[in-house]
Amino acid sequence: MPDMAEATTAAERDAIQRSSRSVRALAKTYGINPKTVAKWKKRAFVHDLKRGPAEPRSTSLSVEEEAMAVTFRRHAMLPLDDCLYALQISIPHLTRSSLHRCFQRHGISQLPRIDIDHGAERRPPAARIGMFLLSLTEIRTAEGKLYLYAATDRVSKFTFTYLVRRTSKATTVKFLDALIAAIPYRVHTVFTSSRIQSVYPIRYLEAPTGHFASQAFGDRCAHYRIVHRIYHLEGGWLTSEGRSPSEFGKLGFLYDSLEDVETYIAHFLFTLNYKRKLKCLRGLTPHNYVTRMRETHPHLFVSDAYHQTVGPIRNRKRERMRGI
What we know:
By secondary structure, this protein is α/β, with parallel strands linked by helices. The chain has helices spanning 10-18, 23-30, 34-42, 63-76, 80-87, 96-105, 125-128, 169-182, 202-205, 216-223, 258-274, 286-296, 316-322; strands at residues 131-141, 144-153, 159-164, 189-192, 227-230.
């Protein structure tokens, strides 16, 4: 039989599946190859299968490296180029194209809109600095599980972390206290997801014993005059409360001990906050951005940002006079 056009519509495929006629008769009726008729008779659906590998994966990144990139994107929520600059600290062979394809596979190629404060995007940076996004992720080691709290400023991109063995509402309050003590400027808004144990669910508060529930995190935010908002993500931006823990397969233990985790996080944060120049900050590091904001808007700061400078503070004017 000559090879004819293989294009069939969804209605024709449905009619082929419902028909009791022979394969040869249906092929002659629709003018298609008998193999095509046999294929659609075996299937229980009428749409085309997705082309390509059944489980798409990167050819240049390992499973661990891809998990690191996706986790960093979900919690830091930095643009693509800035994610590339930050992740190249640990993945030197990472390229922009491979990172973009990785984000596309996991549905996080576009940043979500979580600044739910009305007109927040139109405000100047000086009015928005101090808006922190709080996130929580689980780290597996050979000694057990660890939980990493992270807070990232939506403007300066300065990141603060807090590592604990157990997570609870009291731990979240301690994390907020540590954040307030570490940041040199005033924190006025915090965004948390449902993953962080910051508030009790509505069903608990409406119960007969709901008035006994302590909203410690909300009380602490009120004490610091901080606006607390809860954001909701969709699709690939869902963190571990909406996705399977085996999303990346059996990764095993990425770290051997707590000391290994602390050493890696300290090195990564030092490079990210003090060394990596970000495109969204116009070529400045997060720490340089904060120090410049301190010079132009000193009323926003509660302590001197230069005190967080790593190493001796150099007097550039005096060095130029000395010819250094």
